[in-house]
Specification:
This protein is an alpha/beta fold. The protein is built from eight helices and 22 strands. It has a single domain, classed as Leucine-rich repeat, LRR (right-handed beta-alpha superhelix) (Alpha-Beta Horseshoe). Strands 1-2-4-6-8-10-12-14-16-18-20-22 form a twelve-stranded mixed sheet, with helices on both faces. The chain has a five-stranded parallel sheet with strand order 7-9-11-13-15, with no helix packed on it. It has a three-stranded parallel sheet with strand order 17-19-21.
């Protein structure tokens, strides 16, 4: 199961890379009318209002716990310690202190949310003071986690590049450890918001309704304390490109419309989702799709073949999936990672998997697969990009003699805990005999290879029995 652990690590690295890439976007396409709505601009000169005290707020003195007026401390952690003095909150900035009316309207939203924060181990909220909500845009360090940009102009108009339209376009709380009982009334109150990232915090409650935000396209609520059914407020978000709900405590079935979202990445892993994966799974536009470490049952939907134009990495591992391994997987030509380890999937390996010329990692370990491991699959280590093939902990009785044996020797192919005679570390013979006497399900063997692989064809002697098995609904393995 080392391969499964490696794929979990790969998943985490992938998610991190996607989020880091998003944080450095300087031009983003949401839809034809919302182009180049950049999330963050970090290289502009610092802006510090210093005329007539504009932009400055009262704060307790650094020397005592007195509540008289004083400049705000430069160190947000010191400011956080002063909050414990019992001083009344500093007066709100006057309207002329703000860059524009947009930011003036968002100031009370942030302050109201700040008042609900129950944990702030890094002292982040101490920087949420004063009128400089876009301080990071000008290279400053106030209002950590908030990033500003100019919203896109209406069709036919030009977006002014002065400060009159600057607004908060993204919020990134990744890794802050903030706690709050709800995000409702906060995230949904930023009319120009495009991104909300909140990985590794302690947020809970209802997921806000973000359908009123016309530019919104990335939602990351991973590694928090959300619970209950799949959030219904997410389903209508037709512009979403990135949805990450992993490592929460959601339970129940996943609504079919989730797979109609036009996302590039969809992470639902490490929750308590159960029931069948919806039949419209193949409607997804995702390149990266992870439903691992849940309680899903039933088969991998055969509609997966519809994802051929987009799906690159898919992880089904560690659920309770069953049924026959679908022939249609071999039609998803762009797959680079396929992981369905740790389930109850059965049947022979379809020869169609030999058409996955781009696949690098293929994990089917820990299932109830049986029959022959075909050379047409193992040949991908030479003709394709296959680097890791794990078929351990199944019930295979033989391996292809040409390519598969070579992969076993080179440790690219793991076949431990199977039923292969004269191979080390196999199941007891009695256990194998009992399995083949009463396999969990009789799955058809399809001898057809749906791509041009010169030199590979099922042996003529095997064809009649294979076809007969398919027509009769029984039979189990064989083929080259």
């Amino acid at each position: 199961m080392a391969a499964a652990s490696g794929h979990n690590a790969r998943l985490l690295a992938l998610a991190l890379a996607l989020l880091l890439a998003a944080l450095h976007l300087h031009g983003v396409v949401c839809d034809p009318s919302h182009t180049h709505f950049a999330m963050v601009s970090r290289n502009a000169p610092s802006w510090r209002p210093d005329r007539g005290g504009q932009g400055k707020v009262s704060a307790p003195s650094l020397d005592t716990c007195g509540c008289g007026p004083a400049p705000p401390p430069a160190d947000p952690l010191k400011a956080a310690s002063l909050d414990k003095c019992g001083c009344p909150p500093a007066p709100a900035p006057s309207p002329e202190d703000f860059l524009n009316e947009n930011l003036q309207a968002l100031y009370p939203v942030i302050q109201a949310f700040k008042a609900t924060i129950t944990s702030d181990p890094r002292g982040v909220t101490a920087s949420w003071v004063g009128p400089n909500l876009c301080d990071s845009y000008f290279g400053g360090d106030m209002y950590k986690g908030f990033y500003c940009e100019h919203p896109p102009a209406p069709p036919g108009a030009t977006t002014p590049k002065d400060n009159t339209t600057l607004t908060i376009a993204s919020i990134d709380f990744n890794g802050y450890g903030l706690g709050a009982p709800s995000l409702a009334g906060f995230v949904d109150a930023f009319p120009d918001l495009a991104l909300f990232h909140a990985n590794s915090n302690n947020f809970s409650g209802e997921v806000p309704d973000l359908t009123g935000l016309p530019y919104f396209y990335e939602l990351d609520l991973s590694n928090n304390n959300f619970s209950g059914a799949f959030p219904a407020t997410v389903v209508p978000l037709g512009r979403l490109l990135f949805l990450d709900l992993r490592f929460n405590r959601f339970v129940g079935t996943v609504p079919p419309p989730v797979f109609d979202l036009t996302v590039v990445a969809l992470f639902l892993n490490n929750n308590g989702f159960y029931g069948n994966i919806p039949d419209n799974f193949g409607s997804t536009t995702a390149e990266y799709l992870v439903v691992a470490n849940n309680q899903f049952t039933g088969p991998i939907p055969r509609s997966i073949y519809n994802t051929s134009a987009n799906l690159s990495e898919v992880l089904f591992l560690n659920n309770h999936l069953s049924g026959c391994l679908p022939y249609e997987i071999g039609l998803v030509e762009g797959l680079t990672v396929f992981d369905a380890g740790g389930n109850d999937i059965t049947g022979p390996i379809p020869l169609s998997l030999g058409c996955l010329g781009l696949v690098e990692e293929l994990n089917l370990a820990g299932n109830q697969l049986y029959g022959h491991i075909p050379d047409v699959l193992c040949a991908l280590a030479k003709t394709g990009k296959l680097q890791n093939l794990s078929l351990s902990d199944n019930y295979f009785h033989s391996v292809g003699r040409r390519h598969c044996l070579e992969l076993v020797r080179s440790k690219v192919l793991d076949v431990r805990l199977n039923c292969i005679p004269n191979f080390p570390h196999q199941r007891p013979a009695l256990e194998c005999a009992r399995f083949y006497a009463d396999p969990p399900q009789h799955c058809p063997f399809v001898p057809h290879i749906p791509c041009d692989l010169p030199g590979f064809r099922p042996p003529a002697a095997a064809l009649p029995s294979a076809v007969a098995a398919e027509e009769g609904g029984g039979g189990g393995g064989g083929g080259n």
